[in-house]
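Session log. Operator J.P. requested a structure for one protein chain; no other inputs attached. Running the standard single-chain path with token output.
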Amino acid sequence: MKKKTPKPLKKGFSRRRFLRGAGLTAAGTVIAGSGMLGLKAQQLPEEKSPGAGVLNLSMHVNGRLRQMSVEARTTLADALRNELQLTGTKVGCNRGACAACTVWIDGIPTLSCMTLAVEVGERKVTTIEGLARHGKLHPVQQAFIDHDATQCGFCTSGMLLTTAHLLAQNSGPSAEEVKAATSGNFCRCGTHPKVITATLDAAAKM
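Structure written below.
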């Protein structure tokens, strides 16, 4: 079967020229339709983003009213560490996955890296520095020492606040209940077995 030979394009015309012309036509249509022709460049009014600037906050931390000046974007973890110098609160992953930054807000374990300082308001914050009372360690703190439940120590403050809260809610937890309570606290060193032992010992002594 004889193949048909495609007809040659007209002289002076090519696919490249056709596509270039089509593109210029489309661009011209968009510009004309938008009313951009004949307009001079104008300076848009400057808008301030919501919450920008420095805020003066009062915060109840470890039984004291503390004053600080922070940006609206400042997390509670950064406010505690950088403004109040309460560096017992650690920032591990900074995305709410490891729980090293755990503090109490009105007695509830809360991830301070995922909480803005401006969100706290009148609620009371307790950090690891406020867990001991009148110079005496909390029973779970003493148990962590007795059972060597720390290694690098980076996760320890979060672990302590989590287990202390558990014992405040349940004075006689089982090993499985301690394991479940601390399941969100990530320890790279693998101290979870000793954390469970220490927590059970603290519960027995409380």
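Operator note: Residues 24-41 have pLDDT under 50 and may be disordered.
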